[in-house]
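Hi everyone, sorry if this is the wrong subforum. Our group has a chain we'd like a structural model of before ordering constructs, and none of us has done structure prediction before. Sequence below.
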Amino acid sequence: MKIAIYLSILVCLLKLPVLVFANQKVEVQHYQAQLLVKSGQILSLDVTLVGIKAICHGKLIDAHLYQHNGNWLYEIQIRSPNGEIVDLILNARNGQLTNPAKMPSRCIAETL
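Answer:
Right subforum, don't worry. Here is the predicted structure as tokens:
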């Protein structure tokens, strides 16, 4: 009986690193992002930003590409013309906003 308990604990401990790392964001390097764009798996950051800047104008402060739960995501920060920081998470495959669910009210559309 004790052996079965010890084996069960051992199996759980061996699976722990997989469970811990399964939900972590894995950021990719620039060359990896280029390969993903060339293979058609994601949109380039430039293409994604053109779409976003039309509805949330401002200066790009930071951008990261990472994979989370099998989905490629861009996490970007934009400084709006009035100085507010806007954090957005976009689906890198199609450029759609994933978080927040809708564009924040502090986003200002670009004037033509």
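For your construct planning: Residues 2-22 form the longest helix (21 residues). Residues 4-21 have pLDDT under 50 and may be disordered.
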